[in-house]
Design goal:
Blueprint (H helix, E strand, L loop, with lengths): L1 H48 L11 E2 L5 H18 L6 E2 L8 E2 L7 H6 L1 H7 L1 H28 L2 H12 L2 H9 L2 H4 L3 H14 L3 H17 L1 H20 L12 H20 L1 H9 L32 H11 L12 H13 L1 H18 L3 E4 L2 E6 L21 H19 L5 H20 L6 E2 L24 E5 L9 H9 L16 H4 L3 H5 L9 E2 L4 H9 L2 E7 L5 H14 L6 E2 L3 E5 L9 E4 L7 E3 L2 E6 L2 E8 L5 E11 L4 E7 L2 E8 L5 E9 L2 E8 L3 E3 L5 E3 L1 E11 L1
Helix pairs in contact: 1-5, 2-4, 2-5, 2-19, 4-5, 5-6, 5-9, 5-17, 6-17, 6-18, 9-10, 9-11, 10-11, 10-12, 11-12, 11-16, 15-16, 15-17, 16-17
Length: 731
């Protein structure tokens, strides 16, 4: 008996082990099918809402207003792929705003989205990369919200519906319709909030660091959402400090609560440290980005906007827009609707699970409060009541943002938690099959009522065949541009992105460009020849020597602008007629391409390359009284110089000038270094010369003189009158 019992024991253990392994394997398969099913459901829903985008996956993109923002976003993804595949960081580009280039760090450059779309962009093209990112915003945004909500509530079906409420909200669909992919791509926000939740509940230094890294990642996808997540970090720390969690009584925060709150806010400190150099530059140059405070109120939410029915729905959308337009004529970027399905379920969850959700309700309320901007507006009436956003709008970065309403995306994520609790209450006495049926019905209702906007408008742009014949872009071994295309119109600070579309084909540097936050680009405003051919007034007998058109030819040759292209598809017949006349005076010769869509001029290679100087900012208008011509300056004026050669040039500046009323000291600085002083005589014009060494590259010679108001010129301040300016350069 003992032997039999002893012999049977291993067999029982092996049997128990086999059963445990089977249960474990079944659990793994169940987990796999659950997550695969969730991803598949969100994918099918995304394809339905974005239809027919998948049919044009590599040839077109969704976007309103002729795809201006959509194709800017497409260029951004293309640039990230281009820079990374060539071993460069994508935070600066030297192929826009030639020859200076432009810093892209604070732009809507979408680096995070460019990285996640990198294989698609490289394999299938930038349009496919754009469409992939749009789909990812629905699929990954819904899935990450599902994981977050399920972790908080423990309800899988409720989390599935909660993820739908976030990913397929009217707000998100509106962003897709508009086209700017950096605000369409909301999917990293729930990932950050998920990580922040773990840190709030169980703070550790590595969770804090992880949240700080995720803050940077969200910001590199879109600075609106990155900044909103930073703000949410501070709000959440405060909420966790004063609002009790489930099962906790209301009480004054003790020392432990304060320590936890400080820990909760540390991700923002990591964020500051990680991007400290860029923040320092933004603080030291607050005007680096445009000041948008004047439009904050118009880009903020009205209290009723959150609760509107889907303003994009084919059946009633036009009526919603018409009613909103009546209250806010000309308003844009106002659709921040949360969706009625989500609001209804969220209300049920807030009522039935109050102890579990009061922190989330507080955080939602604070987010919506900030989304309403500087003052409270209700149904079109501005109450004048100041709101908390007024305390933030003067900070660098925030004051250059034009979408305060978009912080509601945080509330949209957290609404998913309330939705799951509401769903759990509704299904508390249902069978699993019945609960699944209710979830399916709610999802169908959400997609057809809250999310559906009809077939999407697909924007397809054809690029002229000429751009495919330009050959390899001109760069030296260090990656610096050695030539450029001047596409006209330049669209500097104009809401057009066609020149970016053609650049994705020819890959050459271009003058100008289109960015959401245009830089201070004055090159084409002052460079001789280039400024006239762009459309600035032609002055044939200016005070500068050599005059027109020689100085213009020197400018084109020195800056190595090789082609001027005219996009005739935009109309503007009179503008292009002036361009042709200027090109003829410069001596371009006949166009090398001339059809109904495009006209192309090649800059003659025979024009000599050498240093040049010309007038910059600060010069008053040309005046003339035969036989004299002159220009006045005030306290400051600028002469720009460019040496395209590797070796420095001995530069002789000759000036004929006279001081206003009394002798004045004219101080000159080459960049930041003193370049000489001249005591300019009054009453009689005199000639002066200054010599200095001009290094290679671009430079500014700044002229300073004390100025006094002139009653004969409406008290305009003047100092010195210049009759002639001439530069001579020697090796």
């Amino acid at each position: 008996m003992w032997l039999c019992g002893d012999a049977s024991q291993p067999s029982n253990i092996e049997g128990y082990a086999t059963v445990a392994e089977q249960h474990s394997q079944q659990s793994r398969w169940q987990t796999f099918f659950t997550h695969s099913g969730v991803l598949a459901l969100y994918t099918l829903a995304a394809l339905f809402i974005s239809w027919p985008m998948v049919r044009y996956f590599t040839t077109g993109v969704i976007g309103a207003e002729h795809g201006v923002d959509a194709y800017q976003g497409t260029w951004n993804l293309w640039w990230v792929a281009t820079a990374l595949s060539s071993g460069r960081l994508p935070f600066f580009t030297n192929i826009l705003y030639y020859p200076t280039g432009v810093d892209l760090f604070w732009q809507t450059s979408q680096v995070a989205h460019g990285i996640t779309a990198l294989p698609i962009t490289l394999l299938l093209g930038p349009r496919a990369g754009f469409n992939w990112t749009v789909l990812l915003s629905f699929v990954l945004g819904g899935y990450l919200t599902f994981l977050f909500v399920r972790e908080v509530t423990g309800n899988t079906l409720g989390a599935l519906v909660g993820g739908m409420v976030f990913a397929f909200s009217p707000y998100h669909v509106q962003r897709m319709v508009d086209g700017p992919v950096e605000v369409t791509s909301i999917h990293w926000v729930p990932l950050y909030l998920f990580a922040l939740y773990f840190h709030l509940e169980r703070p550790t230094w590595w969770r804090s660091l992880l949240c700080g890294l995720l803050l940077v990642w969200v910001g590199l996808g879109g600075w609106y959402y990155g900044l909103f997540c930073v703000i949410t970090t501070g709000l959440a720390a405060g909420v966790w400090l004063v609002v009790p969690g489930p099962g906790q009584p209301w009480r004054w925060p003790d020392r432990a609560a304060w320590v936890r709150a400080i820990w909760a806010g540390t991700p923002a400190l990591w964020w500051v440290l990680l991007i400290a150099p860029q923040l320092q530059g933004l603080v030291s140059e607050p005007d680096k980005l445009w000041d948008m405070r004047e439009i904050h109120a118009w880009r903020s939410a009205d209290l009723l906007d959150f609760f509107l029915p889907n303003p994009l729905h084919p059946l009633w959308g036009e009526a919603i827009w018409a009613a909103r337009e009546e209250r806010y004529p000309g308003a844009v970027i106002w659709n921040v609707a949360l969706g009625w399905v989500g609001l209804a379920l969220g209300l049920v969850g807030a009522i039935t699970a109050w102890p579990q959700v009061r922190r989330w309700v507080a955080l939602i309320a604070l987010s919506l409060l900030l989304a309403m901007g500087p003052t409270l507006r209700v149904a079109g009436y501005d109450t004048g009541l100041p709101l908390p956003f007024m305390l933030l709008q003067d900070f660098p970065g925030i004051r250059s943002g034009q979408r305060p309403s978009h912080i509601m995306v945080v509330a949209s994520v957290l609404l998913g938690i309330l939705v799951a609790y509401g769903f759990a209450w509704l299904t508390r006495r249902m069978t699993m099959r019945a609960a699944g049926g209710l979830a399916a019905g709610l999802i169908a209702l959400l997609l057809t009522f809250d999310a559906y906007a009809g077939p999407m408008l697909i924007q397809q742009r054809e690029v002229h065949p000429f751009y495919r014949t330009l050959g390899p872009p001109p760069f030296d071994v260090e990656g610096q541009p050695q030539g450029a295309v001047m596409p006209l119109p330049l669209y500097i600070q104009v809401n057009r992105s066609e020149n970016l579309t053609t650049q994705m084909v020819h890959r050459w540097p271009i003058l100008g460009g289109y960015l959401a936050r245009p830089p201070a680009y004055t090159f084409s405003r002052y460079a001789p020849g280039l400024r006239e051919i762009e459309g600035y007034p032609l002055v044939t007998n200016d005070i500068f020597s050599p005059g027109w058109p020689t100085l213009g030819q020197q400018s084109f040759a020195a800056y190595d602008v090789r082609y001027v292209t005219l996009d005739l598809t935009v109309g503007r017949t009179e503008y292009f007629a002036r361009v042709r006349a200027t090109a003829k005076e410069l001596g371009f010769g006949p166009p090398i391409v001339a059809d109904a869509d495009l006209e192309v001029y090649r800059v003659p290679e025979t024009w000599p390359v050498g240093s040049l100087g010309y007038l910059g900012e600060g010069w008053q208008g040309l005046e003339e009284q035969m036989p004299y011509r002159w220009r006045w300056i005030g306290e400051r004026a600028e002469l720009r110089l460019f040496n395209p050669l590797e070796q420095p040039q001995i530069t002789t500046l000759s000036m004929r000038m006279v001081s206003h009323d009394e002798p004045r000291l004219l101080e000159m600085r080459l960049d930041d270094m003193p370049a000489g002083e001249i005591l300019v005589a009054a009453h009689e014009p005199s000639s002066y010369q200054v010599r200095f060494m001009l290094p290679s590259g671009s430079h500014a010679l700044t002229l300073h003189a004390p100025a006094t108001p002139d009653p004969e010129r409406s008290n305009e301040a003047i100092s010195i009158r210049f009759f002639r300016i001439e530069f001579k350069f020697d090796s």
